[in-house]
Design goal:
Blueprint (H helix, E strand, L loop, with lengths): L15 E5 L3 H10 L7 E5 L10 H9 L8 E5 L8 H11 L3 E4 L5 H6 L1 H9 L3 E4 L1 H5 L1 H6 L11 H5 L4 E6 L4 H14 L2 E6 L3 H15 L1
Parallel strand pairs: 1-2, 1-3, 3-4, 5-6, 6-7
Helix pairs in contact: 2-3
């Protein structure tokens, strides 16, 4: 299946979550915190599709397939993510099929992880490239190789020439993540900063829809 990755086993008529694979560890932690680890059906879409946002909405629809969703809580684990309203269109179609559906807030994962802090960071330094824990760990595969810079490093200035800062928006306190993000900033020639944001907005986004159905 295009854009699909391994998923959790279905859980009868429990909440359905179709999420970007970049959220796997964070989503597992959130579901555990909310007591939903054994009731939610979770399916993932490949994180590499962020380099092809035009394919994300179709990949989400493919993961949902013919599942019965009438009366179910459905969380689409993406922000807009460059789909130009494509994810919103998926959510609307799910609501039209009788689901209580929502997506994560904001334009991208940096915004829903950081919440109000993101606007402050953006206003302070618009030329900023952001990393989450997942992207810091997988910078080489998803960013460097994903953009072809492993083969054509001279293109780095084309992609990042207008950036001045790299900010790690961390979800955990893993020092290895900070080291990897700092190394990415040095490779790109950007000033490094680290802001710990946790998982609060992700908890809110999942719980609002899911708990409305399972309460």
């Amino acid at each position: 299946m295009r854009g699909a990755t391994a998923s959790r086993a279905p859980a009868a008529d429990g909440p359905l979550i179709v999420a970007c694979a970049a959220l796997t560890s964070d989503l597992r932690a959130v579901l555990g915190q909310l007591g939903l680890s054994d009731t939610a059906e979770v399916r993932y879409v490949k994180a590499s599709l962020h380099n092809r946002p035009d394919l994300i909405a179709d990949a989400v629809v493919e993961q949902i397939g013919e599942r019965r969703i009438e009366g179910r809580a459905v969380v689409v684990g993406f922000a807009d993510c460059g789909t130009g309203g494509g994810i919103d269109g998926v959510v609307e179609s799910l609501q039209g099929r009788g689901a209580t559906a929502t997506r994560l807030p904001g334009a991208h994962c940096y915004e829903f992880f950081a919440g109000e802090v993101f606007a402050e960071l953006h206003d302070r330094s618009p030329g900023t490239f952001y990393l989450t824990d997942f992207l810091a760990r997988h910078f080489d595969a998803l960013v460097w190789a994903g953009l072809g810079l492993d083969r054509h490093p001279e293109l780095a200035m084309t992609f990042f020439g207008n950036y001045t800062h790299l900010v790690l928006l961390s979800q955990t306190d893993d020092p290895d993540v900070v080291l990897r993000a700092r190394a990415a900033a040095e490779r790109l020639g950007l000033q490094f900063d680290h802001v710990h944001v946790g998982r609060g907005p992700l908890v809110d986004a999942v719980s609002v829809t899911v708990r409305a159905q399972v309460a």
